[in-house]
Amino acid sequence: MFNKILIANRGEIACRVIRTARRMGIKTVAVYSEADKDALHVEMADEAVAIGPPAASQSYLVIEKIVAACKETRAEAVHPGYGFLSERAAFAQALADAGIVFIGPNTKAIEAMGDKIESKKFANAAKVSTVPGYLGVIETPERAAEIADEIGYPVMIKASAGGGGKGMRIAHSRQEVSEGFARARSEARSSFGDDRVFVEKFIVNPRHVEIQVLGDKHGHVIYLGERECSIQRRNQKVIEEAPSPLLDEATRRKMGEQAVALARAVDYDSAGTVEFVAGQDRSFYFLEMNTRLQVEHPVTELVTGVDLVEEMIRSAAGEKLRLSQADVKLKGWAVESRVYAEDPTRGFLPSTGRLVKYRPPAEGTKRGVTVRNDTGVYEGGEISIHYDPMIAKLVTHARDRPGAIDAQATALDAFVIDGIRHNIPFLSALMQHPRWREGRLSTGFIAEEFPDGFQPLIAKGETERRLAVAAAHIDHTLNERKRHISGQLREPEQLRFETKRVVVMGKRRIELEIEAKKSGVAIVFADGAKAEVHSDWTPGDLLWRGTVDGSEIAVQARPILNGYALSHAGVGVEVRVYTRREAQLAALMIERKGADGSKSLLCPMPGLVKAIVVKVGQEVKAGEQLCIVEAMKMENVLNAERDGTVKAILCKEGDSLAVDAVIMEFT
Hints:
Elements: E1 4-7, H1 11-23, E2 27-32, H2 40-44, E3 47-50, H3 63-73, E4 77-79, H4 89-97, E5 101-102, H5 107-114, H6 116-125, E6 133-134, H7 141-151, E7 155-163, E8 166-171, H8 174-192, E9 197-201, E10 207-215, E11 221-233, E12 236-242, H9 249-265, E13 271-278, E14 284-290, H10 297-304, H11 308-316, E15 333-340, E16 342-343, E17 349-350, E18 353-354, E19 357-359, E20 364-366, E21 369-375, E22 382-383, E23 390-398, H12 401-413, E24 416-418, H13 424-432, H14 434-438, H15 445-449, H16 461-483, E25 500-505, E26 508-516, E27 521-525, E28 530-535, E29 543-548, E30 551-560, E31 563-568, E32 571-578, H17 580-586, E33 600-602, E34 607-612, E35 619-620, E36 625-631, E37 634-639, E38 644-649, E39 656-657, E40 662-666
Helix pairs in contact: 4-5, 5-6, 7-8, 12-13
């Protein structure tokens, strides 16, 4: 076994590998760019080596720097994590040439399967069902359009060396092929140092199901069940689960056996994933093979009890697999949500800045429910513009799918993040969505269910009642505190504050009364319904936790002027609690209106101006491209919202812009 390994990655996956290595008694070395000098993975590792500027192309993607760091620290092996150099055969070969072990598959397997074009050729030769497409390298947008015409629309333009949704575009017409081809190549070059792309048929209403395989250097290969990753946005997975609600045992076995056969064909000897696009009728087609650890590997670990990182390390050290196929049993259900630094109410645009508050839910197992949070950040740390916007992966495991979903919803409610925008409200809303809970999934789920973008759910029913209860209890606690301030409110007991309240929640007015008890309080609604409430919330806490009629709930509560912004179960609402007289007066207040920004194009996220495609004085039509802003390795095309004429352009290509910076003005 190795004494010391280097992790050629950053963020949560670097921290994840370090945790397993530490448990195995293996020392670790972190590498870091200038932007990551204070990162969590640097602090966690036993040693750390600086490898260059923030840009990945000058640090994490430079093979020579990783090899030099290994030699400097005498690391015997390298775990690549995912992304960056994890699927580069040249990297594995450079390590081998330097006498360093690559914790991953052999170079033959990487070359055969890591390249999406070559992997499809291997799959065809192995008689694995594949999606119709053109497997050669495409050099020009004109050629891409010709191929798309032959295949039939819609098509997927995909980077050959891609992954994580980077370098992928769906096109429904020749024009979209031309535009998508340029964007896919640019993103692929930036993210992977390889701008080759190919075109294949896009299966309508598909599901994304993948098989986890595991092999050793002695010819043994097994599969560890499947994961479903159908909840995606811009080809980026958002929620994953294991097992899949689509598959039956026969289909699972058939997919698993195909995945193993493909892996054996290239002598696969590590953890890897064979991905399939599946029809609603359980038909399936080979999509690609990822010759690395997947982002979503924790759900497989929780339903199988197998530590995939440990097995990768043992395989790289030459050990035989400790499991046979018969040993693999799927137990319970696991759900993973990717928590991103992005604003779901503004088209999921990336958000950067400092994590003023970062309080994830408690990890561990309680009453048969497991909560796990894989993260690479900490309170006070910074979310950088240079890398992927992932903050954490929140994973829950329970006896069955409804239990895992309920546990995930509860954990998301208790996940406090302040200082940047994040997608927890969106994830919480997904957990409440009937179609998701019923398992009626497809990769078009988000586009179909949120065609106009995401807005927090409207409070109604039991959720509205719980929010009103939390708001009333917060107000009661604050009033109790005021009563005990020295020198204040010395009235007799019968002259205490009025107990009748009006909870104003958006445009809703909820009348109730608060009854103080020796233990907790009772909230009595106007219709006579009563809720018994217990909570140890104290002023200043951003999370209200308590029980309502015996059920444990969590509500995020952030102070605003004369009230609180509450978030629970996908609902985000500003709440104010008044006496009845105060409520009457508040209803007379004039609503403030924001400034008119219709004549300006604002930068929707912190980013780098990649291209400006219009000129001053140019007339533009609604929908026309104006400029391209790159943020966190993704290129975002900004289009005109209405017809107009460009009056002024206030930045130039190469400029770094803050959120809401004015890019151009119109007349």
